[in-house]
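Quick start: what a row looks like.
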Amino acid sequence: MTEFELRERLTHCIELEYILLGDLRDLLEEAPSKETSRWLTAVLDVLLEKIPEEFEMRCEDGYLQSVIDKEPNWEPLVQRLQEQHFTMFRSLKAFRDRLRSGDIEVVSAESLKLSLGEWIESFTNHRRSEQRLVLMATHVDVGWGG
């Protein structure tokens, strides 16, 4: 696969994730029902497929390797973000598994909605942290050369 093809696939994955997160937000606004649960499960299934696919493409040369190459002392920050990514993925899988169990009551459905809403916020913040770290490494001031 060429670098251009990889970037195209990566862009498509990121765009699809963005759309799915929007769908997830919309579904969380719906009243709990079997139909809503079925749609939530379907969206979570696709997210659980796309998140690792996108992560694997971004990690082809190592997770945020460009940041580590530019700023080696930031490796602990990169490792923390990578661990956070895996933790969030496991949490999302647990949410989906709870929905699949089919015995969610209204009280736990509301709790699940709240937890999923918090997960969406955490995932969005995680992506922002990754982007901020890349931007900071790209624009770090190496000092005056004079």
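That is the whole record. The chain has a mean pLDDT of 87. Helices lie at 3-29, 34-58, 65-70, 75-101, 106-138.
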